[in-house]
Amino acid sequence: MKLKTNLHFHTSDDPEDPISHSSFEAIDKAAELGFDAIAITCHNLCAVKEEYTAYAESKGILLISGIEKTIEKSHVVILNSDKAAEQITTFDELALYKKSNPDIFVIAPHP
Fold first, then answer.
1. Minimal CA–CA distance to 40: which of 99, 32, 55, 93?
2. Number of structural domains found in the chain
3. pLDDT for residue 82
4. What is the pTM of this model?
């Protein structure tokens, strides 16, 4: 089965990027474009809220919690994360977080 996904984008919730579109607008656009799942990955902030998840579900989209975390001067996307991921500052801490949260998925968002 193939799914259309976007696992790395920002919204106006992002504290570090001046993004004009809200999470609701991003969900609307994703639905319009036929996405099955998306992940909001704001910089150093887990921005997914229950109301975003419910809204995405009403549009037929799986909303994945995520964060684009700056760790040792590198950007790392952590999917299926929670607020605890906001406190990670080293790759050793990320490894411990992964060990206690085996369902997370870690990717490099860009070179």
1. 55
2. 1
3. 96
4. 0.93
Q: Which domain holds residue 40?
A: 5-107
Structure tokens that stand for 31 in this block: 């639905």
**The CA-based dihedral angle spanning residues 87, 95, 106, 58, taken in that order and rounded to the nearest 10 degrees:** -60
What's 51's domain CATH number? Answer: 3.20.20.140
Tokens found for residue 71: 């760790």
- Give me the mean pLDDT over the 9-17 stretch: 92
81 phi/psi in degrees, rounded to 5: -90, 170
Q: How far apart are CA 53 and CA 77, in angstroms?
A: 19
Contacts of 35 (CB under 8 A, 6+ apart): 4, 5, 6, 61
Tens digit of pLDDT for each residue in 23-47?
999 999 999 999 999 999 999 999 9
Per-residue pLDDT, 85:
98
Q: How far is CA 104 from CA 17, 38, 66, 89, in A?
A: 24, 15, 9, 17
- What is the reported pLDDT for 99? 98
